[in-house]
Each structure stands twice: as structure tokens, then as C-alpha cells.
Write a structure and sequence with these properties.
With 383 residues, the protein is of the alpha+beta class. It is built from 9 helices and 19 strands. The radius of gyration is 21 Å and the shape is globular. The structure holds flavin-adenine dinucleotide. Flavin-adenine dinucleotide (FAD) binds next to helix 1, strand 2, strand 3, strand 12 and strand 17.
Length: 383
């Protein structure tokens, strides 16, 4: 049996962030990922990451993975409709990457700082002796090898085996998302520009993200869209690219239920496994990384409750994020032309996504009646 201080199941952004901050804090840490390639293979993901990732990793880590820096947002009232407006941001709105490149950079950085990477699929998790305070979590890999540690970090994504083994329920609110990596010719210049089309029913949005040699386009929204979503994503890319070569794939994205278990005994749940995804933008890369960092810091400090306090803050932040999204949906439904041209609203959005303002700070500027209206919408909105 191999012993470490911490085992991390999953080497995506959340696992890599936990690994880097644990290794930096002096822990012996082992990252186990079912991919035998450092950083994994192709992942279904828009690959857009924001500067909130700097809260977890130094900027230099992304130099190779960032294919395109986005400073313009084209916002359109309906898919394939002419009516649109472009808003410019003085700070980057997002950076575009292929996830395999990004994940390789992040995990490689953690390994450079002392974390160990072990390829292997975790098939079984033993938590049975943890409850009495003396036991340690252990995992068994395909092939039978057993690893044990003082702490376990579950960074194993939306279908987390660790969370299931702990008997945790699936997150009630889930975004269904389909992405089309579309290759072909386009007359439009997409460099530095993303397109977003908010959708009212089913709630969600269409996106076009410019990659180095193709466009990533898709739709993410409520389960109501599930049966039609592939066709929508395809039609949407066809409207932007001539003779597109389509690579469609889909996944669901879990959104945190406030109060969802984030740690128990010696197990910490981070990233998609814990639903750490912005409910307004469905951005899970930087939030997953932040949750990994926060769990790591509380393990190093020997104070799990520290992670709990951070998670309480996130639950408040995500509440305000849902309010922001609901306000956008409401304004698109009522006066789409006005919201398209509301420069102040979009500059606030840029400040929030780039990490220069929190959703809670924005929420506190609203009048009482508006806050009351959004509170009601938050109660009844499907996402
Ligand atoms: C279509 C789509 C588009 C998206 N676009 C964006 C976007 O543009 N920007 C953004 O910020 N977010 C986006 N997201 C969300 C984002 O992909 C996730 O939130 C993010 O990947 C979460 O990171 P993670 O590290 O928690 O999990 P993951 O990246 O899923 O990593 C989990 C890792 O765990 C490993 N693993 C799982 N089970 C086991 C096991 N039993 N044993 C060993 N290893 C295991 C997997 O191999 C994997 O590497 C998108 C999601 C979808 C579906």
C-alpha cells in the first residue's frame, strides 16, 4: 500500500489547483487520473477561462494554452437574427483554450512543484474507518493497487465516484450543454470576439468561442432542451461557418445546491463534483480551481472549517449570480433591443467575469424592489 498525505482523485483544473497548493504547503500529494496522459485527453468544454484563474495559478502558467484573448462581446437577441450589438472591454473578458492543453499546463505546473501524478482509474473508495477520527481514506485502482492518505480530495468531475460513495445526492440543478467544434471557412473575423445569445426558454445561452483554427459553438440550458440541443448547436454553427466539419459532444454541468456537503471527516469535494460552477455563465474552470485551492489551504492549515467558510461565501456569490442571470433573462424577454445596447450593464458584466467585482457587490447596489423581484425569480427559476 502506498501512503501519501493527500490523494486527489481527478487531475482536471480543480484537482491540479488542489495539488499545486498542497505541494506548495509542504504536503506529499498524489494525483490519480484515469487518463494516462498528463492533463488528460480531449474534454467536452468551451475552454474559455477568465482571469479569475489568476486567483489560483500564476499568469505565466497559461502562456502556451491561451489561443486567443477575447476583449469583444457580440450580444445577439436571437440565434441567426441580424439584431446584435458589440461591446468592448478594456480588460480581457476571457482566454480561449483547448482543454487538453490547459489541463496539461495546470497539472504539469503542480507536478513541477512536487505533486506526484499517477495514471489509474479509481474503482473503489474506502471511507468506512474515517468516521471514528482514526481511520484514513483509501482508494483502490483498476488492477488492485491500493493507496491510502490522511486526506482525500474528490476532484473527479460531474459523475464523482467519491461523492456517490459518500452517499451524496446528485445536484438538483443541472445545465445540459452541447458543444460543436466546427472547422470550415467563415468570412467573419472572430479573433478577440465571442458571441453570446441569451435564451429565455429553455433558459440558457448559445455561444461562439474563437479557437486558433476553428470555432467552438454550442448551447447550454435546462434539461427541457435535451432532445433538440444537438440540432440547435449544429444549426447555429452552420449559420456562422460554411461547410462546417462538425464535432459535436455533450455533457451535463452540475450547479451547486446551497449547503451541499463540501467536506466530511477527511474528504473534501471540489470542482464539478461539488457543483462549483458559476450559475450565470456556467464557468467551471476557474471556480473549480478556486475550490481546489481553498480545500488545499484548509488541509495545510489543519482546519477544515476554513473551507466551510469559503463555501458559505460561494453559496452567497452564486445566489447573486443567479439573480444577475435572471435579471438578464427578464430584460431580454421584455426589451431585448434595450439590453443589447445597455453599455453600463455589459461593462458591469465584464468587471464581474474578470474578477474585478463580485456578484454580491453588484447585488448590493440594487434597489429593494429589484432585489425582491430577483429573490422571487431565484426561488422559481429552473436553473
Ligand atoms: C459543453 C461544455 C462547455 C463548457 N464550457 C466551459 C467554458 O468555456 N469555461 C468554463 O470555465 N467551463 C466550461 N464548462 C464547465 C467545465 O468543463 C467544468 O466545470 C470543469 O471541467 C470542471 O473541472 P473539474 O476539475 O472539477 O472536473 P473535470 O475537468 O471533469 O476533471 C475530472 C477529472 O477526474 C478524472 N476522473 C473521473 N473519475 C475518475 C476515477 N474514477 N478515477 C480517476 N480519475 C477520474 C477525469 O479523468 C478528469 O480528468 C463546460 C462544460 C461543458 C459540458
Amino acid at each position: 500500500m502506498t501512503k501519501s498525505d493527500v490523494i486527489i482523485v481527478g487531475g482536471g483544473p480543480s484537482g491540479s489547483a488542489a495539488a499545486y497548493h498542497l505541494a506548495r504547503g509542504g504536503a506529499r500529494v498524489r494525483v490519480v487520473d484515469s487518463s494516462d496522459v498528463l492533463g488528460g485527453r480531449y474534454k467536452t468544454c468551451g475552454g474559455g477561462f477568465t482571469e479569475k484563474l489568476w486567483w489560483t495559478f500564476p499568469r505565466s502558467v497559461f502562456a502556451e494554452a491561451a489561443e486567443n484573448t477575447v476583449t469583444n462581446l457580440r450580444i445577439r437577441a436571437r440565434p441567426n437574427e441580424e439584431l446584435s450589438a458589440v461591446h468592448h472591454s478594456d480588460v480581457p473578458i476571457a482566454h480561449m483554450s483547448m482543454r487538453s492543453d490547459l489541463d496539461r499546463s495546470l497539472l504539469g505546473f503542480a507536478v513541477d512543484h512536487g505533486a506526484e501524478f499517477q495514471p489509474g482509474k479509481v474503482e473503489q473508495i474506502s471511507l468506512d474507518r474515517v468516521g471514528n477520527g482514526n481511520g484514513r481514506p483509501s482508494v483502490t485502482l483498476q488492477g488492485g493497487e491500493k493507496l491510502t492518505a490522511d486526506y482525500l480530495v474528490a476532484a473527479d468531475g460531474a459523475y464523482s465516484l467519491v461523492a456517490r460513495t459518500m452517499g451524496l445526492p446528485r445536484h438538483r440543478r443541472q445545465v445540459v450543454a452541447v458543444e460543436d467544434e466546427a472547422y470550415g471557412s467563415t468570412e467573419e473575423n472572430w479573433s478577440g470576439t465571442i458571441e453570446i445569445v441569451p435564451s429565455i426558454s429553455p433558459m440558457g445561452y448559445f455561444w461562439v468561442f474563437p479557437k486558433a483554427d476553428h470555432l467552438s459553438a454550442g448551447f447550454g440550458g435546462t434539461k427541457k432542451a435535451a432532445s433538440r440541443i444537438k440540432k440547435w448547436a449544429r444549426d447555429y454553427t452552420d449559420s456562422h461557418i460554411e461547410s462546417a466539419d462538425h464535432h459535436l459532444s455533450g455533457h451535463y454541468i452540475p450547479l451547486r445546491d446551497p449547503g451541499y456537503t463540501s467536506y466530511r471527516d477527511r474528504v473534501f469535494i471540489v470542482g464539478d463534483a461539488g457543483g462549483f460552477v458559476d450559475p450565470c455563465t456556467a464557468e467551471g474552470i476557474s471556480w473549480g480551481a478556486l475550490s481546489g485551492k481553498s480545500a488545499a489551504e484548509s488541509i495545510v492549515a489543519g482546519d477544515p472549517a476554513q473551507f466551510g467558510s469559503w463555501v458559505d461565501w460561494v453559496d452567497s456569490e452564486f445566489y447573486a449570480a443567479r439573480a444577475f442571470r435572471n435579471l438578464l433573462v427578464l430584460r431580454v424577454a421584455l426589451r431585448s433591443r434595450q439590453i443589447l445596447n445597455d453599455a453600463g450593464f455589459w461593462q458591469t458584466f465584464f468587471k464581474i467575469v474578470s474578477g474585478r467585482m463580485t456578484y454580491q457587490e453588484w447585488f448590493s447596489t440594487l434597489s429593494r424592489p429589484t432585489r425582491g423581484l430577483l429573490w422571487t425569480m431565484n426561488r422559481f427559476a429552473p436553473l
